[in-house]
């Protein structure tokens, strides 16, 4: 990308991330940080308050290190809001993820820096229409000469797009067109040849999902199902089904269902898991986005919010995605937005619609890709803001 004079050197960028959703928040920030470094040469400092959760998706992280370099990214343990900073310690671009409070000392140094940094609030993903009017809006600091801009990921040309790395499409297509590669990958987790022939489902959800009812419907059904669930997810229902501790490597077969508990894997392997399955249950934001790039049918378990605001966000996405009545009915029931009178009936309706949903998944992937990727869109906007500041009208 072409950069103004002040960006002739590789720009620096700081991301401030507080882990609220265990893996989703850091998952998004880590993907973005790696892409900015690998594809754009941006020198990234990633400030994270929970390195132990980070390590679940990136085993190279040392949870005890105050500062470390991981895959070219400088990772800093964000312990508190204390500390003073010099202006030359401030990055060219500063990103607060989902409106976290940056340490006051860092903000003060931002105001003293020349030129002042480009400052973004990278917001959470939603399909609601109002974000198109708020994307890129400025917000003046109440005391300092600083302006922050809101940057919304999204599904339309009037938003910032989604995180999508270069080469992802080619890697996915090659993997999904190679049955031996998919079988070899799943064999690492104990999946056998007969289990490969079953309907393969990955299950990632929050604890309040009606997992026990779904496992029962699968086990009592007529079609074999292989369910792959990460360790610690829906642990009570999984443990009850297995009849033992739900630790990585444990498994059980009851009726038509074989359930296997997987260890948490690095992000590239999680992508492959989504690619290898016929249906993916995902949660939050990071796995939700990766399921869309997988080109497979998926069910989203949205992060719960007060006053059931998440149900409004869920309906907004379902309205854009337009996967059909079966997906809408199951998704609303899975998220507690409406009752599920009969889980076996709800599952049968969704199962029957899977071929149609597979077609829609591929169409949707291409539609969203047409709007570009979030990292490139964000850097382009940063460049425009810097040019405007250096050449005021």
Describe the structure.
There is one protein chain. The protein has 393 residues and is of the alpha/beta class. The chain is built from 15 helices and 14 strands. The strands form 2 sheets. An 8-stranded mixed beta sheet has the order 3-4-2-1-5-6-8-7, covered by helices on one side. A 6-stranded mixed beta sheet has the order 11-12-10-9-13-14, with helices on both faces. A hairpin with a 2-residue loop joins strand 11 and strand 12. Helix 6 packs across helix 10 and helix 13 packs across helix 14. The protein starts with 11 loop residues before the first strand and ends with a helix.
Q: What is the gist of this entry?
A:
This protein is an alpha/beta fold.
Descriptive tags:
disordered N terminus; 41% helix; globular; single chain; 393 residues; six-stranded mixed beta sheet; alpha/beta
Shape: globular
List the strand order in the largest sheet. 3-4-2-1-5-6-8-7
Structural class: alpha/beta
Report the span from N to C terminus: 24 Å
Largest sheet: 8 strands, mixed
Low-pLDDT runs? 1-6
Bin the strand percentage. Answer: 15-25%
Number of helices: 15
**Radius of gyration over all CA atoms, rounded:** 22 Å
Order of helices and strands: EHEHEEEHEHEEHHHEHEHEEHEHEHHHH
Classify the helix fraction into a percent range. 40-55%
Whole-number mean pLDDT: 95
How do the strands and helices of this protein lay out in sequence?
Layout lengths: L11 E6 L6 H17 L2 E6 L2 H7 L9 E4 L2 E5 L15 E5 L6 H9 L5 E5 L8 H4 L3 E3 L6 E5 L16 H9 L2 H9 L5 H5 L1 E5 L7 H9 L5 E6 L4 H8 L8 E4 L2 E6 L4 H10 L2 E5 L2 H9 L3 E4 L7 H13 L3 H10 L8 H27 L4 H17 L3
Parallel strand pairs: 1-2, 1-5, 2-4, 5-6, 6-8, 9-10, 9-13, 10-12, 13-14
Antiparallel strand pairs: 3-4, 7-8, 11-12
């Amino acid at each position: 990308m072409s950069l103004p004079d002040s960006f002739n050197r590789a720009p620096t960028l700081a991301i401030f991330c507080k882990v609220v959703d265990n893996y989703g928040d850091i998952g998004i920030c880590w993907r973005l940080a790696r892409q900015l470094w690998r594809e754009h040469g941006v020198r990234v400092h990633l400030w994270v308050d929970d390195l132990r959760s980070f390590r679940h998706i990136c085993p190279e992280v040392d949870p005890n290190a105050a500062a470390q370099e991981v895959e070219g990214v400088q990772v800093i343990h964000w312990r508190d809001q204390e500390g003073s900073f010099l202006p030359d310690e401030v990055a060219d671009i500063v990103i607060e993820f989902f409106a976290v409070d940056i340490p006051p000392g860092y903000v003060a140094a931002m105001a003293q820096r020349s030129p002042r940094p480009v400052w973004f609030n990278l917001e959470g993903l939603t399909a609601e229409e109002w974000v198109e009017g708020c994307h890129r809006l400025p917000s003046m600091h109440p005391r300092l000469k600083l302006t922050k801009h809101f940057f919304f990921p999204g599904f339309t040309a009037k938003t910032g797009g989604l995180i999508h790395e270069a080469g992802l499409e080619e890697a996915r297509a090659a993997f999904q067109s190679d049955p031996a590669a998919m079988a070899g990958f799943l064999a690492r987790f104990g999946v056998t040849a007969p289990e490969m022939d079953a309907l393969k489902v990955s299950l990632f959800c929050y604890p309040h999902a009606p997992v026990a009812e779904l496992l029962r419907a699968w086990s009592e059904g007529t079609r074999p199902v292989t369910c792959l669930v990460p360790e610690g997810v829906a642990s009570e229902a999984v443990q009850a089904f297995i009849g033992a501790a739900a630790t990585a490597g444990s498994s059980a077969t009851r009726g038509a269902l074989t359930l296997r508990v997987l260890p948490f894997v690095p992000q590239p392997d999680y992508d492959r898991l989504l690619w290898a399955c016929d249906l993916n249950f995902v949660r939050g934001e990071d796995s939700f986005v990766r399921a869309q790039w997988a080109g497979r049918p998926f069910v989203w378990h949205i992060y719960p919010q007060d006053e059931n605001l998440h149900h409004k966000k869920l309906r907004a996405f379902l309205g854009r995605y337009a996967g059909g009545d079966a997906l809408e009915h199951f998704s609303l029931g899975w998220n507690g937005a409406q009752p599920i009178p009969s889980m076996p009936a709800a599952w049968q309706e969704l199962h029957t619609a899977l071929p149609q949903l597979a077609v829609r998944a591929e169409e949707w992937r291409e539609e969203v890709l047409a709007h570009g990727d979030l990292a490139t869109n964000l850097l382009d906007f940063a460049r425009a803001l810097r040019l405007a500041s250096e050449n005021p009208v």
